[in-house]
């Protein structure tokens, strides 16, 4: 699998290296510690087994024969014979005869070549050895090497008033040499054996543990790759259980953001396409009418009556006006949609603005025999908003109210202040909006429903909604067919 091949080979190499170093260090320490304690253990064993050797020598060997001290001097012949007998059995021992203060009177060793000029040994370990009856592991001076301490056996003697010690080095020079040769072989065997075993176990354990350690990483790399290859649903499962939770969570969040942004871009793109399709349809209709009437006037210019000419000109004017309005709206809407407009908020009197607008629309209202007036005008309500944008929104709403209200109807603009908010309501007694259409009137161009699309002529309410968005507020519609509609929105009040 490609995922496995590309999985951070450097990391795997580092893990292997760390494992090998660990095994070598642990292995070497183990061999060293084992060797040290093994040596101590065998020394302690030899000392314990031979604890009574010196005592035995005095009790058994010299009891019935002539004493080894004659007139205060060592009976070398006797002593030497006996010692050599013993050493024939155990070549590792070295026997010393000392006086009370530890001065060496006589020694029997196999090889005198390694002798040093040490003439005495410390009696402290000797006394301790005798006091504990050899039960304790004690090291004494090595007469042949002052820097070394050795296991020994010792026993006191008292012959004709002369006191001293029989001091026997148990692991003598001979034993040391043999042991040194053997230990070298032992260590090399142990080293080879341990290394082979370590390599075998390190291989098995290393493989398994590295596999487990990198399992999550492999899964994560696989998920990231799947995402890269286009599977936008790919997410790291159970990030909490992952070894690298932060990475897993960050990746998942990043993937969500990317998918979210893609969706947003798609929907904006979709909206643009729909807008272009619908608007071009809406532009084509008045253009076709314009063209039709102009052509007719050109063809029949001599046969048309003045009244007909007047009527045709009015129709062409109305359609040109519709076109210009639509183009203006489109321009305005695209600027709002592209977020090119930033509201410049300031305190202003919504009551005054409404008065001006009512005055402006009153001519049209009178033409259509509609009663247009302002409610609650006695209060002067101040709001904090972008005056130009609010004026545009109110214009669109009043235009619609007058457009969809039949003669003898009523259009009322009410302003009501509730603490920190000012509620503005544009109510008419017009045609009303069917319930099914109400959810779509603010963003008609987003809708794919062709029945709704066909009715669209302008972007008036879509612009109103964008203006509300820029003021972080919403607009609601309450409408009943044949009874009328109310468009209500709130703006933040400004307290002087
Ligand atoms: P239009 O140019 O078509 O009026 P708008 O965006 O201003 O575009 O309005 C969208 C639609 O909402 C209208 O086509 C109409 O069906 C409905 N509408 C808006 N205002 C009113 C109203 N006051 N009374 C009845 N219907 C309305």
Task: Explain this structure.
- The protein has 496 residues and is an alpha+beta fold.
- It folds into 3 domains: 51-169, Beta-Lactamase; 241-339, Signal transduction histidine kinase, dimerisation/phosphotransfer (DHp) domain (Helix Hairpins, Orthogonal Bundle); 341-492, Heat Shock Protein 90 (2-Layer Sandwich).
- It has helices spanning 2-6, 9-49, 53-61, 76-89, 124-131, 173-213, 215-228, 245-299, 306-337, 350-367, 387-403, 450-455, 460-470, and strands spanning 69-70, 73-74, 94-99, 104-108, 139-141, 149-159, 162-169, 346-349, 371-375, 382-385, 410-418, 421-428, 475-480, 484-492.
- The strands form 4 sheets. Strands 4-3-7-6-5 form a 5-stranded antiparallel sheet. A 5-stranded mixed sheet has the order 9-11-12-14-13, covered by helices on one side. A two-stranded antiparallel sheet has the order 1-2.
- Strand 5 (139-141) and strand 6 (149-159) form a beta hairpin.
- Helix 2 (9-49) packs antiparallel against helix 6 (173-213) and helix 11 runs antiparallel to helix 13 (460-470).
- It is rod-shaped and about 175 Å long.
- The protein starts with a helix and ends with a strand.
- Mean pLDDT is 84; it is low at 447-455.
- Adenosine-5'-diphosphate (ADP) is lined by residues 396, 400-401, 404, 428, 430-433, 441, 444, 455-462, 485.
Strand order of the largest sheet: 4-3-7-6-5
Q: How many H/I helical runs?
A: 13
> Based on CA inertia axes, which overall geometry fits?
rod-shaped
Strand content: 15-25%
CATH topology group of the largest domain: Heat Shock Protein 90
**Over all CA atoms, what is the radius of gyration?**
56 Å
Overall structural class, as computed from helix and strand content, comes to alpha+beta
**Sequence of secondary-structure elements:** HHHEEHEEHEEEHHHHEHEEHEEHHEE
What is the helix fraction of residues, given as a range? 40-55%
CATH class of the largest domain: Alpha Beta
* Mean residue pLDDT: 84
CATH superfamily of the largest domain: Histidine kinase-like ATPase, C-terminal domain
Task: List bound small molecules.
Answer: adenosine-5'-diphosphate
Number of domains: 3
Largest sheet: 5 strands, antiparallel
Number of strands: 14
* N- to C-terminal distance: 72 Å
Question: What's the architecture of the largest domain, going by CATH?
Answer: 2-Layer Sandwich
List the uncertain runs.
Answer: 447-455
Subcellular location: Cell membrane
EC number: 2.7.13.3
Membrane topology: Multi-pass membrane protein
Catalytic activity: ATP + protein L-histidine = ADP + protein N-phospho-L-histidine
């Amino acid at each position: 699998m490609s995922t496995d091949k590309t999985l951070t080979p450097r990391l795997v190499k580092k893990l292997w290296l760390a494992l090998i170093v660990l095994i070598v260090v642990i292995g070497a320490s183990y061999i060293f510690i084992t060797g040290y304690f093994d040596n101590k253990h065998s020394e302690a064993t030899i000392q314990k087994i031979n604890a009574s050797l010196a005592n035995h020598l005095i009790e058994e060997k010299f009891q019935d024969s002539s004493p080894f001290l004659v007139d205060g001097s060592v009976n070398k012949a006797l002593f030497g014979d006996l010692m050599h007998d013993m050493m024939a059995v155990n070549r590792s021992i070295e026997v010393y005869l000392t006086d009370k203060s530890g001065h060496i009177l006589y020694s029997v060793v196999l090889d005198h070549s390694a002798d040093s000029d040490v003439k005495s040994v410390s009696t402290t370990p000797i006394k301790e050895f005798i006091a504990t009856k050899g039960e304790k592991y004690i090291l004494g001076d090595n007469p042949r090497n002052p820097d070394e301490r050795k296991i020994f056996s010792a026993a006191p003697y008292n012959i004709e008033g002369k006191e001293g010690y029989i001091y026997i080095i148990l692991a003598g020079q001979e034993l040391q040499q043999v042991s040194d040769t053997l230990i070298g072989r032992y260590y090399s065997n142990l080293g080879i054996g341990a290394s082979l075993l370590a390599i075998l176990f390190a291989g098995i354990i290393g493989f398994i543990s590295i596999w487990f350690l990198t399992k999550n990483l492999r899964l994560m790399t696989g998920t990231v790759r799947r995402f890269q290859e286009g599977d936008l649903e790919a997410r790291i499962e159970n990030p909490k259980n992952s070894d690298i939770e932060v990475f897993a969570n960050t990746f998942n969040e990043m993937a969500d953001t990317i998918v979210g942004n893609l969706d947003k871009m798609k929907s904006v793109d979709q909206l643009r396409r729909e807008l272009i399709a619908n608007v071009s349809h809406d532009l084509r209709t008045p253009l076709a009418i314009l063209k039709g009437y102009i052509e007719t006037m050109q063809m029949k210019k001599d046969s048309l009556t003045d009244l007909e000419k007047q009527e045709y000109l009015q129709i062409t004017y109305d359609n040109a006006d519709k076109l210009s309005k639509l183009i203006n709206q489109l321009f305005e809407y695209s600027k709002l949609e592209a977020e090119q407009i930033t509201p410049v908020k300031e305190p202003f009197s919504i009551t005054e603005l409404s008065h001006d607008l009512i005055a402006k629309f009153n001519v049209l209202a009178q033409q259509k025999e509609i009663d247009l007036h302002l409610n609650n005008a006695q209060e002067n309500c101040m709001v904090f908003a972008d005056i130009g944008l609010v004026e545009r929104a109110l214009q669109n709403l009043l235009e619609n109210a007058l457009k969809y209200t039949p003669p003898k109807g009523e259009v009322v603009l009410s302003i009501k202040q509730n603490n920190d908010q000012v509620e503005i309501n544009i109510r008419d007694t017009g045609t009303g909006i069917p319930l099914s259409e109400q959810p779509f009137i603010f963003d008609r161009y987003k809708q794919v429903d062709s029945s709704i699309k066909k009715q669209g002529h302008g972007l008036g309410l879509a612009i109103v909604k964008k203006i509300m968005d820029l003021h972080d507020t919403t607009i609601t519609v309450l409408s009943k067919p044949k009874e009328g509609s109310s468009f209500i929105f709130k703006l933040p009040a400004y307290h002087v």
